[in-house]
Automatic annotation (TrEMBL):
Residues that bind dimethylallyl diphosphate: 46, 79, 129, 228-230, 273
Binding note for cofactor: Binds 1 [4Fe-4S] cluster per subunit.
Binding site for isopentenyl diphosphate: 46, 79, 129, 228-230, 273
Domain of life of the source: Bacteria
Pathway: Isoprenoid biosynthesis; isopentenyl diphosphate biosynthesis via DXP pathway; isopentenyl diphosphate from 1-deoxy-D-xylulose 5-phosphate: step 6/6; Isoprenoid biosynthesis; dimethylallyl diphosphate biosynthesis; dimethylallyl diphosphate from (2E)-4-hydroxy-3-methylbutenyl diphosphate: step 1/1
NCBIfam families, per the entry: ispH_lytB, PRK01045.1-2, PRK01045.1-4
Active-site positions on this chain: 131 (proton donor)
Originating organism: Paragemmobacter ruber
Designated gene of the protein: ispH
Binding site for (2E)-4-hydroxy-3-methylbut-2-enyl diphosphate: 46, 79, 129, 170, 228-230, 273
Short name of one Pfam family: LYTB
Cofactor(s) required, per the database record: [4Fe-4S] cluster
Lineage, uppermost ranks: Bacteria, Pseudomonadati, Pseudomonadota, Alphaproteobacteria, Rhodobacterales
Single annotated GO MF: 4-hydroxy-3-methylbut-2-enyl diphosphate reductase activity
Name of the molecule in the record: 4-hydroxy-3-methylbut-2-enyl diphosphate reductase
Catalytic activity: dimethylallyl diphosphate + 2 oxidized [2Fe-2S]-[ferredoxin] + H2O = (2E)-4-hydroxy-3-methylbut-2-enyl diphosphate + 2 reduced [2Fe-2S]-[ferredoxin] + 2 H(+); isopentenyl diphosphate + 2 oxidized [2Fe-2S]-[ferredoxin] + H2O = (2E)-4-hydroxy-3-methylbut-2-enyl diphosphate + 2 reduced [2Fe-2S]-[ferredoxin] + 2 H(+)
Amino acid sequence: MSLPPLTLYLAAPRGFCAGVDRAIKIVEMALEKWGAPVYVRHEIVHNKFVVDGLRAKGAVFVEELDECPLDRPVVFSAHGVPKAVPAEAARREMIAVDATCPLVTKVHNEAARHHENGLQMIMIGHAGHPETVGTMGQLPPGEVLLVETVADVATLTVRDPGKLAFITQTTLSVDDTADIAAALKARFPAILAPAHDDICYATTNRQMAVKAMAGKIDALLVIGAPNSSNSKRLVEVGANAGCAYAQLIQRAVDIDWRALEGIRSVGITAGASAPEVLVNEVIDAFRARFATTVEMVETAVETVEFKVPRILREPA
Ligand code: 2E7
Ligand code: F3S
């Protein structure tokens, strides 16, 4: 029996960004340097496959510092931590390695600089997400106000409309953020803005590739975790760009084959925390069911790399 034909469009860039590469390397190098167990505060990146792999090598994942013994190293996840967390680790005299993405640290520094200049901050982000919690936690309570939607802008109560700046989470929808930033500028004309926003290159590039493939595909599958902000944004971008069927899947086993019946072209991308082995697993699952042709939709080439912290480059 011959298999039905199907074209798989593969987004490029997709998958791991430089911050994720670095964060995973930090945990691996910490395990090499100090042996197991190495504690990691929060999932190093939001991917079960990555977390399970590191757990098998001796990493122990916890949510709070007080779950870590004093005599073992602790790594802070790529999403960043409130200022109180490294301060508490230092007070406890723990070895702490910070895997916060340098592009998140840049936003932390931006917030601190505005605060020193007497500005109150407004953060565009998602409530409760660890990056938002970490960035807001760089400043004292009340100094960073959160907005999630254009509607939130109208209800903000600020200290002084003439002394404001805004920052953003790095993994937001580029288009939604532009709308919220415009609403902020309309309501507070004096607000200081980042050059564009604080959305990182990886988020921007992955969204751009999805937009480029949207017109060619009947369905979009985004490989990523349900708690991965950047992955969820890719599903939304696909839906907004006209994909009638856009789904987040963690692995090939999550594909709803019945929903794909009769479909002839599928777009595949992966969030910044999803490893390429899972993309290959999904491609193989298609090859088993369809006469599959794979085509690349490449909208950017990424060359960004980040160094690991010095403590891991020095001998033990
Ligand atoms: C850190 C940051 O782990 P992720 O899925 O995280 P998000 O923030 O998208 O939920 O992806 C990698 C990553 C992205 N941003 C890590 Cl601040
Ligand atoms: Fe950093 Fe962006 Fe990746 S903030 S961890 S480069 S998705």
